[in-house]
């Protein structure tokens, strides 16, 4: 098999002596979805920040296409085609869809002093790219981003990343704040990105969503990788138990069952 | 979100035909209007104008009446436009009052007291404004202290510095100047005996800034920085440079009005200008600019400035005590903000216009 698009080897990160991540090794190939599972505080955010260039690891290596790299800034990471889409998608709610899509990379037309931001083209491209991802309700590039639904905003952000040439798409809890239908739509977009040959890192704590789209899975607990498996190797219950810390979850469930039994008896 | 900005060439994954622009309809243009940040300001301007047409009578509508509020609007507008631009980028500038006084005193001292050529004095005055803006910008960017505090501090420091220096240098706090004809014509003459030449400066500056904000990538950066400075930085926008540049522009605007007033009134006083600090913010906020940044337009700022000027001058034509002008302005400010919030919510409500059109 060819070198993975992105590979982490024994990556650790500590803040002021506290270990946030310990010896994480991961890899993700083109056309694959790697699901990063973990409860709140498991170290998912720290890992994303390392991958997107906000933090540099304390030890360990990051490789892109088999080449060892060090990201000193988010721009370094994006220059290697790694693009991160955060939970709420675009963060410019009061900007138009077209304006927001091209922030920092505005298309221009005209010459010399008459060179100007081509808002019409920007709007058309943004609407077209969203339509390609199945968002047909947005037809006007001047629509404010804040007027879009959560799923539409995610789609806008993903469309933007793909349009500007991302190879590795990191999605940070894209479905967490969404309703069932919207979440399903985002999952479909993830599959679309995968089909286009992108490597997708899908960060979530929703096991069901992960199992729907994932090829490979990694579970983080307290900053360490607790398990690593391929599609079909674990059941949903096994994954949930693992994420919640195994025995603790079993105890909790027993307690819940106890309450249920008491309630039923009355 | 972070995106590769070094690659200008889009990857071009999936190319669908360009969607033909939908035909404008009456309904969609109403929706478009409600989505613009200056809609509330327009209603406000028309409202106060009609109000003073009724209560101010023919005098208010005569040339003299128009000149009186246009002159106020022009001077305030030259300050308010760059202040508003800065506010769209998420920062405040409260130092414009002292900048105006300092630049005014600089011009009067250099060209009046020392007798150097007018050109030198004007350049020195503008340099004081731009320089103060630079200091503001650097302080805000480096220290991360809110611009409200930084520029408030500059406002006080600079007024003290101006006062102290002018006493040291000229021995007084008001200096006279006899501008030459050219300077008078460019900065401080009255056209037809009533209209300040500043009105043309205002129109010129407004035209340039409308172009910059709406039609250039720099304009898009201003909106992005005001929306979320961290995300803007992540896309590669030089946030610090843009902010420092905007503070310098705001200093320039205030200094220009300082120059205009000095030449128009043939002298400078240390106490000038402080009214511009809050008046410019009032004009900008009435104009629909969001105090926290990311939203607003130059047209809105112009309308807000006109509203302010019409109220503050129109009161004299009603025959009422002018004390009431401040009351009206205060109520108007609150009403404008509430109205602007409503329009913004309307613009943000899901699928406005488009949803209706699709049925």
Question: Can you walk through the features of this model?
Answer:
The complex is a heterodimer of chains A (266) and B (359). Chain A has helices at residues 44-51, 74-79, 97-101, 119-132, 150-163, 180-195, 207-213, 236-243, 247-265, and strands spanning 6-15, 18-28, 33-38, 59-64, 67-69, 82-85, 108-109, 116-117, 168-172, 199-204, 216-221, 224-230. Chain A is of the alpha/beta class. Chain A has a single domain (6-234), classed as Rossmann fold (3-Layer(aba) Sandwich), CATH 3.40.50. In chain A, the strands form 3 sheets. Chain A has a 6-stranded mixed sheet with strand order 6-9-10-3-11-12, sandwiched between helices. Chain A has a 4-stranded antiparallel sheet with strand order 2-1-4-5, with helices on one face. Chain A has a two-stranded antiparallel ribbon with strand order 7-8. In chain A, 49% of the residues are buried. In chain B, the strands form 2 sheets. Chain B has a two-stranded antiparallel ribbon. In chain B, strands 2-3 form a two-stranded antiparallel sheet. Chain B has 359 residues and is mostly helical. Chain B has 15 helices and 4 strands. Chain B has one domain: ABC transporter involved in vitamin B12 uptake, BtuC (Orthogonal Bundle), CATH 1.10.3470. Chains A and B meet through α2, β6, β8, α4 and α5 of A and α9, α10, α14 and α15 of B.
Task: Put the structure in a nutshell.
The complex is a heterodimer of chains A (266) and B (359). With 266 residues, chain A is an alpha/beta fold. Helices cover 36% and strands 26% of the residues of chain A.
């Amino acid at each position: 098999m060819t070198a993975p698009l992105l590979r982490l080897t024994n990556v650790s990160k500590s803040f002021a002596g506290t270990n946030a991540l310990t010896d994480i090794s991961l890899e993700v190939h083109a056309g694959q979805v790697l699901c990063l599972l973990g409860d709140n505080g498991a170290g998912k955010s720290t890992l994303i920040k390392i991958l997107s260039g906000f933090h540099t690891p304390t030890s360990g290596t990051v490789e892109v296409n088999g080449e060892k790299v060090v990201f000193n800034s988010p721009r370094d990471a994006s220059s290697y085609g790694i693009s991160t889409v955060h939970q709420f998608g675009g963060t410019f709610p009061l900007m138009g869809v077209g304006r927001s899509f091209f922030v920092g990379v505005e298309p221009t037309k005209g010459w010399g002093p008459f060179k100007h931001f081509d808002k019409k083209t920007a709007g058309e491209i943004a609407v077209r790219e969203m339509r390609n991802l199945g968002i047909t309700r947005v037809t006007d590039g001047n629509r404010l981003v804040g007027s879009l639904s959560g799923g539409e905003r995610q789609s806008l952000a993903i469309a933007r990343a793909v349009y500007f040439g991302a190879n590795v798409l990191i999605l940070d809890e894209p479905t967490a704040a969404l309703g069932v239908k919207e979440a399903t739509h985002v999952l479909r977009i993830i599959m679309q990105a995968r089909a286009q040959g992108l490597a997708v890192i899908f960060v979530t704590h929703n096991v069901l969503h992960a199992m729907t789209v994932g090829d490979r899975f990694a579970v983080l607990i307290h900053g360490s990788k607790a398990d690593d498996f391929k599609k079909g190797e674990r059941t949903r219950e096994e994954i949930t138990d693992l994420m919640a810390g195994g025995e603790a979850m079993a105890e909790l469930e027993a307690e819940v069952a106890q309450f249920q039994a008491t309630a039923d008896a009355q | 979100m972070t995106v590769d900005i070094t690659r200008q060439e889009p990857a071009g994954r999936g190319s669908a035909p360009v969607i033909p622009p939908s035909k404008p309809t009456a309904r969609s243009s109403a929706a478009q209007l409600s989505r613009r940040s200056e809609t509330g300001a327009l209603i406000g301007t028309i409202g106060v104008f009609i109000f003073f047409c009724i209560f101010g009578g023919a005098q208010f509508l005569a040339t003299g009446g128009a000149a009186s509020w246009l002159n106020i609007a022009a001077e305030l507008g030259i300050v308010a436009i760059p202040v508003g631009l800065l506010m769209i980028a998420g920062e405040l500038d409260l130092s414009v009052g002292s900048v105006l006084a300092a630049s005014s005193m600089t011009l009067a001292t250099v060209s009046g007291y020392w007798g150097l050529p007018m050109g030198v004095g004007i350049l020195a005055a503008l340099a004081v404004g731009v320089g103060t803006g630079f200091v503001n910008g650097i302080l805000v960017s480096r220290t991360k202290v809110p611009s409200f505090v930084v520029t408030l501090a500059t406002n006080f420091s600079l007024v003290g510095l101006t006062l102290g220096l002018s006493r040291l240098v000229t021995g007084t706090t008001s200096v006279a100047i006899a501008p030459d004809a050219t300077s008078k014509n460019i900065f401080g003459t009255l056209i037809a005996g009533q209209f300040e030449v500043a009105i043309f400066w205002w129109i010129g500056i407004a035209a340039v800034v409308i172009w910059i904000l709406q039609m250039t990538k720099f304009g898009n950066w201003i909106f992005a920085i005001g929306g979320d400075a961290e995300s803007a930085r992540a896309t590669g926008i030089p946030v610090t440079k843009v902010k420092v540049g905007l503070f310098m522009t705001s200093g320039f605007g205030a200094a220009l009005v300082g120059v205009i007033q000095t030449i128009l009134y043939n002298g400078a006083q240390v106490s000038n200008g402080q009214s511009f600090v809050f008046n410019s913010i009032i004009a900008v906020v009435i104009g629909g600019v969001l105090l926290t940044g990311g939203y607003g337009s130059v047209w809105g700022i112009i309308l807000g400035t006109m509203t302010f000027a019409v109220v503050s001058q129109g009161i004299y034509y009603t025959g009422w005590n002018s004390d009431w002008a401040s009351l009206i302005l205060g109520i108007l400010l609150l009403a404008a903000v509430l109205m602007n919030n409503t329009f913004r919510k309307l613009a943000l409500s899901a699928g406005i216009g488009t949803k209706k059109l699709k049925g």
